[in-house]
Amino acid sequence: xxxxxxxxxxxxxxxxxxxxxxxxxxxxxxxxxxxxxxxxxxxxxxxxxxxxxxxxxxxxxxxxxxxxxxxxxxxxxxxxxxxxxxxxxxxxxxxxxxxxxxxxxxxxxxxxxxxxxxxxxxxxxxxxxxxxxxxxxxxxxxxxxxxxxxxxxxxxxxxxxxxxxxxxxxxxxxxxxxxxxxxxxxxxxxxxxxxxxxxxxxxxxxxxxxxxxxxxxxxxxxxxxxxxxxxxxxxxxxxxxxxxxxxxxxxxxxxxxxxxxxxxxxxxxxxxxxxxxxxxxxxxxxxxxxxxxxxxxxxxxxxxxxxxxxxxxxxxxxxxxxxxxxxxxxxxxxxxxxxxxxxxxxxxxxxxxxxxxxxxxxxxxxxxxxxxxxxxxxxxxxxxxxxx
Length: 388
What we know:
mainly beta; Immunoglobulin-like; 8-stranded mixed sheet; 4-stranded mixed sheet; 2 helices; 26 strands; flat; disordered C terminus
């Protein structure tokens, strides 16, 4: 219902006072015999209903703003600038749902096959944010490329946001490979990748310096070939062991002597992972009755074979049982058994796994609930208590 539907009492189907002092129905026919006290009560009801309707439809009215979808984007255009051929071009645009209703992305299309867009997820709860990843193909295309990426929403109402995207793909400069993609690397260990930068244009062209402002990234540039027709450089990037866990996304900037293209961006992507990963890291035993036993397997993975020295917990001694493996391998399966105590209540415990020869802190959590005198229910599917 639009706010305009509440512009007059007729929008609510209420009787109104006519000019002669009588009462008119919504259809215009006179209505006789309504006392002033009743008329006052009708006016009060009208005001109350109007207030409630406006309150309930506030977000809907905002959603009917023609620009409601645009207001969720932190930017609605992007220029990659002048870029090398064969380079991986990626850019992220943040989308934040500023409304109370759930917002759903029905699809993302592009006016040209050179560009694509992909959201990190399609449904956004109120105040939730997602990334729209834009990419452009520099392998099959050259020169100036101008395209439009269209994001279509079908909830709460239909809307489209068009994002102009452009780049000039320089055929004289080539990267091989197109970016530094480290994928999964270990925390605390230096990781290195190299690429070749080739110039096949006219005139003298020199890379003066390679720069990255990230303190966890080291860059090294070496000229490997120069002749009258082309020159080449070897570019080396090292992700330091000091890099924090999680995704790392940055770039190296090549500073050149070309006044028309003085800076060349080179993408760096990495995911820094712990040496050991526990799955699941939060274990739900669900509901149990006193004395019931339930076992769930815990998997501990390493990047190379390892041995588990011990597994410790603090609060619930005697409640959990496990068997520590004696062999050395890259994947260990630990059967964790919960023995429900006699007392009803919630069980929450954190476990620490000690790996032989490693100082890394490896932990996981387990929780469950003991129901006094009740039959055990299905395992809880939601997150641990306190997690949202």
